[in-house]
Amino acid sequence: MTRAKKKVIKIININADKCNGCRACEIICSSFHATPRYSSTNPARSRIRVIRDPLADIYIPVYAGEYTAAECAGRDKYTIGGKEYDECAFCRASCPSRDVFKEPDSGLPLKCDMCESDPSLDEPMCVQWCLADALTYEEREEEAPEERIVGELDAGLEALANKHGWQQLMDAMSRMSK
Ligand code: SF4
Ligand code: SF4
Fold this sequence. Notes:
Helices cover 25% and strands 21% of the residues. It has helices at residues 24-32, 125-129, 146-164, 166-176; strands at residues 5-14, 48-53, 58-63, 78-80, 83-85, 135-144.
């Protein structure tokens, strides 16, 4: 049987040219994720950080991405439009070499969750609060390739078989199909 599977891709488009470094995005993100919600505001807890160098007219919003236990061995140096950016400027990782994207008290990594909440928001909070329109939200529906669904199913069945044995797995499946 063919099983079509759709997934929603959430995208925040960043137009750094429009960012004025106001940091409203940092404020609302930290406040929205406070416990209880909106009980405190601390940009150090934000899952978006704005790299600011006003003298060089540099303002880059960067979202917290994956946690990495070890810092990378290489660095990239960017020059864009005559402006030089710090080696780690565009990196989204919560890593040991810098203090961003970490809970200030516990040191636990922070990661943007696109403001997941119930009920869900029409747009993430940082996008709503960016009056300069440097951040805009987009959703796209994509069909997951069928091979991947089958592949995932195979991997899942194999893991179950390794744990319980193929015979037991077959017995269970035949019981379920009755
Ligand atoms: S709210 Fe918008 S303009 Fe302000 S710092 Fe964040 S991205 Fe930049
Ligand atoms: S999308 Fe939500 S969680 Fe992610 S940085 Fe923006 S406000 Fe924070």
